[in-house]
Amino acid sequence: MDSIVIRFSAPFTLESNYCYLTTKNFKSNFLSSIPRTKSFNFKLENQTKGQNGVVFDESAYEAERLSLDAKARQSMAETSKREVEMGTEDDPKAWKWVIRKRVWDLMETRNFSQNPRPVHHRIPNFVGAAVAAKNLGGLEEFQVAGCVKVNPDSPQKQVRFLTLSGGKKLLTPQPRLRTGFFSVLESSMLSPSTINEACTSVGVAKYGRPIGLDEKIKVDLIVIGSVAVDPKTGARLGKGEGFAELEYGMLRYMGAIDDSTPVVTSVHDCQLVDDIPVEKLLIHDVPVDIICTPTQVIFTNTTIPKPQGIYWDKLSPEKLGQIRILRELKSRIERETGQKLPSSPSEKLPPTAQRKRR
User: Fold this and answer.
1) CA 337 distance to own-chain centroid
2) Is the pLDDT assigned to residue 111 strictly greater than 90?
3) What does DSSP say about strands 263-266 and 290-292: parallel, antiparallel, or unpaired?
4) Prediction pTM value
5) Taking residues 71-78, what's their average pLDDT?
6) C-alpha torsion angle, residues 166, 169, 174, 180 (rounded to 10)
7) Do 245 and 93 contact (CB within 8 A), yes or no?
8) Cα 219 → chain centroid
9) What helix, strand, coil percent values describe the chain, rounded to 5?
10) Residue 205 CA to its chain's centroid (Å)
11) Cα 266 versus chain centre, distance
């Protein structure tokens, strides 16, 4: 086969593993001038085949993720400012933003957080996250678990690595559930050289097997990120979007978890607080059973009830509009029960990715 080097406005490389370039305009304007006996093969850089042979554009996925994350953080910043200004009497969630901001400010001021920074409106990628993950990996609850659900945030990347390298099944949600539901990864899907990549958001999308609501799966341990957590009560605050609660509720609906499924978080010691008012927690807030920091492991013996499912009256129409899997679940329940489920008042939300209707 003959080959030729051509300069394009988009990056191309010639490789032995290739896909055919079939752009219509290119064929009509260029290929018509090439003798038909010749064959040209190109591969778009950063495009690889993921699970099920689907071409996955890593650069496009990461660029979109970063853009949407930035917009989401801006929206959360506006929400926190608005709710704090309204005060606790007008908004029962304002106190949460006060605690979050105190922790975020402390971590920034004392450099307790690694990149990405600034740490505000994120699950902090705290200094010592790998050590905390090692402590988590030493838990009996982790060692006996066959399937571990781990959040997709940066500070829990090492937990995801320990899960896969330990031969366990890893269940990870798509970031903000924006492009799907959960992805399952197993060490048998990966090579030693790809396990580390599979622990990233791009790697999960590239190597993971997407699952739906009818997947028969048992989750033995849940690992979630936190902004602040009370070691005496197990009360926890996330970054304020509520996705950990939604993921927990959907797993309850699927029968994948129950009240006995341990919930663990890994945080910096400065994220331990003692002023989360348990009486002000909402019914869908998820408490934690175990806290792992770089210096200690804490069993909270929490008495806070765990959520029993999705609380539809807490979900706005905008939130449902963003998350296809939630719309599917709502429609299914309404069909099965013959009753329309409630929803909360409207709210302003960050934009999400464009999705194809199914």
Assistant:
1) 31
2) yes
3) parallel
4) 0.75
5) 56
6) 160
7) no
8) 16
9) 40, 15, 45
10) 11
11) 15
Q: CA dist 123 to 25, 128, 151, 318, Å? A: 45, 14, 10, 23
The count of other CB atoms within 10 Å of the CB of residue 23 is 12
Residue with tokens 């709502």: 330
Residue type, 267: V
Lowest mean pLDDT among 8-12, 113-117, 297-301, 332-336: 8-12
> What are 291-312's pLDDT values in tens digits?
999 999 999 999 999 999 999 9
Query: CATH 3.40.50.10420: which residues of the chain?
Result: 57-299
Residue 301 CB burial class (10 angstroms; 0-12, 13-18, ≥19) = exposed
Phi/psi at 306 (nearest 5 deg)? Answer: -85, 150
Question: CATH for 57-299, among 3.40.50.300, 3.30.450.40, 3.40.630.30, 3.40.50.10420?
Answer: 3.40.50.10420
Q: How far does CA 297 lie from the centroid of its chain?
A: 24
Counting every residue written for the chain, the total comes to 358
- The residue behind tokens 């699970």 is 51
